[in-house]
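Protein 1 of 2
SEQ + STRUCT:
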Amino acid sequence: MIHPIRPFYSLLIRVNPDNPADPADFKCDLCEGDVPAGENGGTKYTFKIRKGVKFHDGTPLTSADIKATFDKIIFPPQGVPSSRKAFFKMVGSVEAPDDYTIVFNLDFPSGSFIPALATPFNFVYSKKDLDAHGYEWHKKNINGTGPFKFVEHIPGQHVAGERYAGYHFEGQPYLDGFKAISAPKMAVRLNAIRADQASIEFRGFPPKARDDLVNALGDKITVQESDWNCVLMATANTKNKPFDDVRVRQALTLAVDRYSASKYLSNIAIVKTVGGIVFPGHPLAANQAEMEQLVGYSKDIEASRAKARQLLKDAGVARRL
């Protein structure tokens, strides 16, 4: 839901829209000036909030809204889940000393703090709405400060928005409105692009479908390609035998030929680059030499599988689980 809902909301900071491929280039959205550098050895970040910003219901934005938003994410009340809480383990407290200043106090310096702030899921909500309606209200109601105001949602069909005249970036948005079409079937998405009923497709097409569109539309279509952080995860239950033995778990990962899988899957899917936990191409991502030091990431699959069989033997597990 990030793509159809994001236009209704703003963030404190965001990825630079003019340079989205750079994982370290961020710009202020609801703050003023440049993204601040850390103070006190990287344990304090002070943001000045834009004045004159209003929610779509006319309520002025203040630092209290920013604080309420991040308190919800970082320090949720008992019983309220927060999937992004772990992103902010370094944050000890959030303060709003005045209406247009927000301060994040970190327990320890962390290079991941600023990127975590720029995560596009960190919609800034109205404190008034949170106080009056709680957290569930936002599942069916939208009140943000983003470039578009909510118009309608027809389940299974589309989400629509119209231009917000009071948006805090002068001259934007450039469109009078937008419609996000819900189309789980690839054929529907392909036809929408081919017939010019849709301007962009976010999830990606397999290579053949991409090539068919390019052949059909020529210079009317632009293709953007990059590495995707794709994860298809099977997690062993370490409380059950034989997976309580680390040797068995290592044998499983050693048996997977990631490089051959990437080579052949890239012909039919968006999977392309073998990567680790950090997004491929990111400054903090492991290079190839570092990757090959991880269990299961060697390019010598025969040696890896021989080691896997030995580990299973050492663990007293039959060759075939």
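Protein 2 of 2
SEQ + STRUCT:
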Amino acid sequence: MVGAACCCLPAVAGDETAAQRAAFIAAYEAAAAGTPAPVTDEELAGYPLFPYVEAARLRRALRTARDGSARQAADSASAAFLEVHGDDPVGRMVRAAWLEGLAERKRWREFLDVYAGATVVGQTLRCQALTARIEIGVTAGIEDEAIEEWLTPESAADECDPVFDWLRRSGRLGADLLERRARLALDAGEWRLARWLVRSLPEERARPLRDWATLLERPQAAIDAIIRNPSVVVEREAVLAGWTSLSRTRPDAARDRFDSLAASLGLDDEAASPFAKELALGLAWSRRPALRYFERVQPVDFDELAHAWHARAALWAGNWRAMRRAIESMPAGQREEPAWRYWLARALWHQGQRQRARQLYESVIPTDNWYAVLAAARIARPFAPHAVEFAFEPARLDALRALPEFVRARELLRAQLHGLAPAEWLAGYEPLDDAGRRAAVMLAHEWGWYFQAIASAAEQRFYEDYALLYPRPYAEEVADAARASRLPETLVYAVMRQESLFQPYAVSSAGAVGLMQLMPATARRTAATMRRPRPTGDDLKEPAVNLMLGAGHLAELIEQFDGQVLLALAAYNAGPATARRWLPDARTDADAWVENIPYNETRGYVQRVMWHSVVFEWLLDGKPEDARTWLVRVSAPGS
């Protein structure tokens, strides 16, 4: 998904704070840039976001102060600010900037005083605090904290180096701690870090860990070496780690070596079971025959993942009997999930147990999801979502509207400071009781902050008020995009909801932008195809541009995949090249193809977008859908 909550709340008629907001925006930008303020502080007196102007000034002063008097003035002003706002989100921003400056200046006593008020700290700050205690000689009791920072499976923050140096100097960072961290790194697949760590170990302790790292770095060559030299002792856990890597990346090669490796290691059925499980998973994820190896897995080694892929492998093989056995062997909680009730019904139907299958289908229909629509289709029943109105106390809304944190959150949204609003929202939301949190959902919806309304409802595990949780903003832009791409508006809305939860300024960790989460390069290619202007990054945050290009890109994918929407959706999420790797060799039931998408994210994405489209269609016309239209088959384009 996306990293930041984003939304746009324009000023409305009768907005009494519009003038102050405009003045605030000008003052805030000037404070951040260090330019003269275009308005006086008196003009912003009483405006709820004025502390953000003060914070911007302080953060700049802390960053740019060079001489002693300027730094002292910034320190004093920061201390005074935290006296008033230390517990607020804006105070946390100033505290973080102040701590950063104090650490750079090595003002360790002052650092510890300011750090004492911090409520959210990561490894960098924790290590700086430990460094501060070391530097001022207050080291009693810090050994355990320092060791805790050391025992991380990944590369630690640079700020931890002085702490680790102290552990070495004091003789506490010996071979045991080096080996413990190396093993943590190997468990996490961080073989490069492990190699670096074991350089300081005695050879007899380093060699098994180097062997493990080699198994992760070059699994096929290392496995072959074990097969050729069965007398060489390698830790079983290390061999399994290398085997797992080989099974994931080259399942055919792993399959060809399974019997030889088992013989070389002298594995009986019980000891071979974990190796069979990893091979079976690797084969299933690559659509290769896997049932033979799932059958060699001992019951004790089956977890939920293995149970699920055992059933999927049987489905892909068209072996309904094996799929039924796989589902019936699942733990009760997993077996009762809508997915596995649906697939058990499919298996029973194929085995002639129509009445029991129908009962299972009927039990899935009320669950409102991808499988519910499919279950309705299987028994030729029209499908309509089962809406439940979200219950809340209207009387609570007035109190919430006046809550300072919510007032600031709304103003931040209106001021286009989208990244700052969620912290204020959480500061107001988290202390609320259940009734208050339900009312807060309605408040966010009232503001048009649909992301926050939907996320807060989900936090309360409420999903069924479709009129509330499936809004249709940007109606004109969606209509234009749908018309240009010849896609149903409901499909555009479904993709937008899944991609960004209606956040026009959303930017993912991978760099996808806007409502339809377009990668800039993809957007530029689509724009060229559509003969539209080349978009900039900021352009992609404009709903009209993003929706037009996102819908256009989806339409291109649908055309590439011969009109097969499910394949196009998988390609939209995982990329066309990846989706093509998943194409079936022959025409395949669509539900079976989707179930066997190896990426959990993409499988869930396709299922949820299709479900969202059903809800939006139902909200549009109020009519049950003929679910049998979902009973299609998929095939490679041109086949």
